[in-house]
Design goal:
The strands form 2 sheets. The protein has a 6-stranded mixed β-barrel with strand order 2-4-3-5-7-6. The protein is mostly beta strands. It is globular and about 45 Å long. The chain has a single domain, classed as SH3 type barrels, CATH 2.30.30.320. It contains 1 helix and 10 strands. Strand 8 and strand 9 form a beta hairpin.
């Protein structure tokens, strides 16, 4: 499970994980789509196309295109990581926990984790 804290992306930028949420929509987002984080009882939930009344924030979907790879798809009930870039304008982003923790190929073809926790 991903915990709040500071993480380093394999390409070098740093991010702060704010919290985890649950994907509550049946439609799948595409990269850079606005997705809505809202409060549903005690838990945060995320959706792409509904407009709930209890909006907490709007973030950008940073996950892989959901139609290009069945494994990259996000489905209702999946855990989503809400995080912010610690550089530039501090973009608020979301991607599935599976993508956040997966191993990826670096430019030199070496495999590494996409995000590595480096601090609280």
């Amino acid at each position: 499970m991903v915990e709040p804290g500071v993480y380093k992306h394999y390409k070098g930028q740093q991010y702060r994980v704010l919290f985890m949420a649950t994907w509550a929509d049946y439609e799948r987002p595409q990269p850079d789509d606005d997705v809505i984080v809202y409060v549903d009882g005690k838990l945060s939930a995320v959706c792409a196309h509904r407009k709930p009344l209890n909006v907490l924030m709007t973030v950008k979907w940073s996950g892989n295109p959901c139609d290009s790879n069945a494994e990259a798809a996000v489905d209702a009930g999946d855990t989503v990581v809400i995080y912010v870039g610690l550089y530039g304008e501090g973009r608020l982003s979301a991607r599935t926990e599976t993508e956040f923790t997966e191993r990826v190929a670096k430019p030199d073809s070496e495999m590494t984790v996409r995000f590595r926790r480096i601090g609280p």
